[in-house]
Write a structure and sequence with these properties.
There is one protein chain. The protein has one domain: 3-Layer(aba) Sandwich (Rossmann fold), CATH 3.40.50.1820. It is an alpha/beta fold. The protein is globular and about 45 Å long. Helices cover about 45% and strands about 15% of the residues. Helix 3 links the parallel strand 3 and strand 4. A 6-stranded parallel sheet has the order 2-1-3-4-5-6, with helices on both faces. Helix 1 crosses helix 9, helix 2 packs across helix 3 and helix 4 crosses helix 5. The chain contains 9 helices and 6 strands.
Length: about 230
């Protein structure tokens, strides 16, 4: 039976963000890419809602000892879930995770209908702006033309900023791999070093000429680092 690997996307991310990882690991792992219900209306804390969603997803699928991989907001959710249910997670992989610090200097509110701004914001995610393809920009732009989704994004971003995980990290017993872009402008390398400092069983690997989403921008390097980490398990 294949071991299960769950891939969690970020706030503006989507299932397509993980294409390179899926192509590489699907022959040997049971891959799951749940679509996080970021836009669903609900009361209460939004990160708590996402963590409960992940818990229910794992229970419904009957998964055990999962490999949990999270980018940006997805990493934040992975941290909260792993802290709550450490026996359910065999390995934790974080890349550009929120939870300690995020640079929001570009502005937290997605400007509706402003294509140039959205293109700039998407390009800001990467070291090489070429990675911000027309298709990727169009995907994000379409999301930001929906007032309800814009509101949900702002509320989720505020929830993530409030949810500071430093006190939880030393209590996570799971072996963790941090894969970080050297040129990540949203969660800079110092954030990765803070994660490394607080997590008791963490390994930090940096990828040069890479921004906030290494699995998209440098998929070959990302996959090799992840494969090596999992083989050592």
């Amino acid at each position: 039976m294949k071991q299960s690997m769950i891939l969690l996307h970020g706030l503006f991310g989507g299932l397509s963000n993980w294409e390179g990882v899926v192509a590489h690991f699907q022959p040997h792992y049971d891959i799951h890419i749940p679509s996080l219900p970021i836009y669903e209306a609900h009361s209460g804390d939004r990160l708590e809602y996402l963590t409960n969603f992940l818990d229910q997803y794992i229970r419904n699928a009957g998964l055990r000892q999962v490999i949990l991989v999270g980018n940006s907001l997805g990493g934040h959710v992975a941290i909260l879930y792993t802290h709550r249910y450490p026996s359910q997670v065999s390995r934790l992989i974080l890349t550009g995770s929120s939870g300690l610090y995020e640079n929001t200097s570009m502005g937290s509110y997605p400007k509706r209908g402003n294509y140039a701004y959205i293109r700039e914001r998407v390009a800001y995610t990467f070291y090489d702006p070429v990675v911000a393809t027309d298709a990727l920009v169009a995907e994000v732009f379409q999301t930001t033309t929906d007032a309800r989704k814009c509101y949900a994004i702002v509320k989720m971003a505020k929830s993530a900023n409030r949810n500071y995980v430093a006190a939880l990290l030393p209590e996570i017993p799971v072996k963790t791999l941090l894969i970080w872009g050297m040129e990540d402008k949203i969660t800079p390398p110092d954030v990765a070093r803070q994660f490394m400092h607080h997590l008791p069983h963490a390994t930090l690997m940096m990828i040069d000429k890479c921004g906030h989403a290494p699995m998209m921008e440098r998929p070959a390097e990302f996959n090799q680092l992840l494969e090596t980490f999992l083989s050592e398990a």
